[in-house]
């Protein structure tokens, strides 16, 4: 009878330790899940900020302003445009597979 009591007491102790360990792991996983959810929200916020920044940097008015003021570009006009006549291209170099 005494052996049975000792075995049951040991089983009860192992069960209690197992329960405490399982609860501790569950708590740790909950904290980690909460941290990861917070990190996901931060990353989402950063992503949206970067999308807005990219849209701002690619605006036509901004590109035009940089071209005019920083790069000193000017609009093309018909009097400054060079027109080439389209014609058949001739080459003095040998074509592929031909000998010189």
Descriptive report:
- The protein has one domain (2-72).
- It has 2 helices and no strands.
- With 100 residues, the chain is mainly alpha-helical.
Short note summarizing the structure:
The chain is mainly alpha-helical. It contains two helices and no strands.
* Whole-number mean pLDDT: 88
What is the number of E strands? 0
Number of structural units classed as domains: 1
Q: Which stretches are poorly predicted, pLDDT < 50 over at least 5 residues?
A: none
The helix count comes to 2
What series of H and E elements makes up the topology? HH
Proportion of residues in helical segments: 55-70%
Strand content: under 5%
Main sheet: strands, sense, barrel: none
From the spread of the alpha carbons, the general shape counts as rod-shaped
Write down the Rg: 38 Å
Amino-to-carboxy terminus distance? 110 Å
> What structural category arises from helix and sheet content?
mainly alpha
Defining traits:
rod-shaped; 2 helices; 100 residues; single chain; mainly alpha
């Amino acid at each position: 009878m005494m052996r049975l009591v000792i075995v049951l007491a040991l089983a009860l102790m192992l069960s209690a330790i197992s329960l405490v360990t399982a609860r501790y792991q569950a708590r740790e996983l909950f904290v980690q899940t909460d941290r990861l959810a917070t990190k996901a929200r931060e990353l989402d916020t950063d992503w949206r900020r970067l999308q807005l920044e990219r849209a701002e940097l690619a605006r036509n008015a901004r590109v035009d302003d940089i071209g005019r003021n920083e790069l000193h570009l000017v609009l093309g006009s018909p009097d400054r445009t060079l027109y080439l006549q389209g014609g058949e291209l001739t080459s003095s170099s040998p074509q592929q597979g031909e000998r010189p």
